[in-house]
Design a protein that fits this description.
Family: Belongs to the short-chain dehydrogenases/reductases (SDR) family.
Protein name: Short-chain dehydrogenase
Structural class: alpha/beta
Strand order of the largest sheet: 3-2-1-4-5-6-7-8
Keywords: Oxidoreductase
Pfam families: adh_short
Distance between the termini: 37 Å
GO molecular function: oxidoreductase activity
Radius of gyration: 16 Å
Length: 226
């Protein structure tokens, strides 16, 4: 059988790069994307033979649509690209610019990429979409006031997950969000969990069986409250 094709955003380093490597290890054809072509090419070379590279700046309104037109049909979409810009700010004083840039990447970026690739999955009758989210955006676990723009952007990502899951229910496309926990990346260099460990959780959600959940918030293989 022809292997499924998986595209990962924000895969130039950190968790995205680890997810690309894990999906390649599981036998998927992987497309590594990053904001510029050189970063994507370096990441693809690090991931392994046969891995494709494509530049994709999720804040560019035309980039996702162009990628969908040029690349092979994508069966698995991992929306990993994200930024944490407002750590240490207060909800009453965080600058508008930081809020706007955070939402542009963390919410709108994933949304426009999904709009570009999910309709093709629906037409083909199979697909998996994973949004990399965070416990900081969970009402149940408590929003993180120490980075208000980041937290609310992840709350919005969780909401987007539920919307797309309902829109695609019964089509063969499963849409879920994953809370990878605090992962040792440039965003959180002191975190205990490695990117490789967290990548297993994301890859599990990206390769769910046909009777797997949709519209769920997942952590370490189990559903957690929103």
């Amino acid at each position: 059988m022809t292997p499924r094709t998986a595209l990962i955003t924000g895969a130039g380093r950190g968790l995205g790069l680890a997810v690309a490597a894990e999906l390649a290890r599981r036998g998927l054809r992987v497309v590594v994307t990053a904001r510029d072509a050189a970063s994507a090419a370096r990441a693809a070379a690090r991931t392994g033979p046969g891995v494709l590279a494509h530049p994709l700046d999720v804040t560019d309104p035309d980039a996702a649509r162009g990628a969908a037109e040029r690349l092979p049909a994508v069966d698995v979409l991992v929306c990993n690209a994200g930024v944490l810009l407002d750590a240490g700010h207060d909800p009453l004083t965080v600058p508008d610019g930081l809020v706007e840039r955070t939402v542009a990447v963390n919410l709108l970026g994933g949304w426009r990429v999904a709009r570009a690739f999910v309709p093709g999955m629906v037409r083909r009758g199979w697909g998996r979409v994973v949004f990399v989210s965070s416990a900081t955006g969970s009402f149940h676990l408590g929003l993180w006031s120490g980075a208000p723009a980041y937290a609310l952007s992840k709350t919005a990502v969780n909401g987007l997950t539920t919307l797309l899951a309902e829109r695609t229910r019964g089509t063969g496309v499963l849409v879920n969000a994953v809370n990878p926990g605090r992962v040792r990346t440039r965003m959180a260099p002191a975190a205990e969990r490695t990117a490789e460990e967290a990548a297993v959780d994301v890859a599990d959600a990206a390769t769910l069986p046909d009777d797997g959940p949709t519209g769920a918030f997942l952590a370490r293989g189990r559903r957690i409250p929103w």
